[in-house]
């Protein structure tokens, strides 16, 4: 999938989530008031547009970002990263980070809930759906109504 703007592809949830949070009434500009810090790394965007499937170069990008956060601001170090949220919206998950154990206490938002991998920790990490806003689903409107009884759950991720 190729999208130079990283806003309309299957993996663009990292961008959509960032835009949503920027508009949120719960956002604060005072880091002392923040409960969580979303890190808009755009790792999938970097991977797809600069170095398709090159985890080494993407890991170097992440290491520079991580060092900037860790050495310029005190918040990651104060909590050992527990209040930092990273989105890895591609099938590689936190492997995009390279040495992901540096952020093992952080919250990871991933598309693939690969529960058997070391970098996914079920008690703190979340599997999120992909961003489908750039896709045309007009065929859905052509389907006949379901004859199934109402469901208790709308979706399961």
What brief labels describe this structure?
alpha/beta; single chain; 4 strands; 4 helices; globular; 157 residues; four-stranded parallel β-sheet
Give a quick precis of the structure.
This protein is α/β, with parallel strands linked by helices and 157 residues long. The protein has 4 helices and 4 strands.
Question: Can you walk me through this structure?
Answer:
The protein is 27% helix and 9% strand. With 157 residues, the chain is an alpha/beta fold. The protein has helices at residues 13-23, 43-50, 55-72, 75-79; strands at 37-39, 84-88, 107-110, 126-127. A 4-stranded parallel β-sheet has the order 1-2-3-4, covered by helices on one side. It has 4 helices and 4 strands; from the N terminus they run αβαααβββ.
């Amino acid at each position: 999938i190729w999208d130079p703007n990283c806003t309309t592809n299957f993996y663009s949830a990292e961008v959509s989530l960032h835009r949503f949070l920027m508009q949120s009434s719960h956002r604060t500009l005072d880091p002392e008031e923040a409960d969580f810090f979303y890190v808009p790394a755009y790792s999938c965007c970097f991977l797809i547009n600069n170095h398709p499937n090159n985890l080494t170069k993407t890991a170097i990008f992440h290491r520079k970002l991580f060092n900037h956060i860790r050495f310029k601001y005190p918040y990651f170090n104060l909590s050992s990263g527990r209040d930092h949220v990273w989105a890895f919206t591609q099938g590689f998950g936190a492997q995009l980070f390279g040495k992901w154990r540096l952020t093992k206490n952080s919250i990871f938002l991933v598309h693939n809930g690969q529960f058997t991998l070391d970098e996914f920790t079920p008690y703190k990490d979340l599997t999120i759906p992909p961003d489908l806003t750039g896709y045309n689903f007009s065929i859905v409107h052509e389907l006949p109504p379901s004859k199934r009884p109402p469901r208790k759950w709308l979706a399961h991720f």
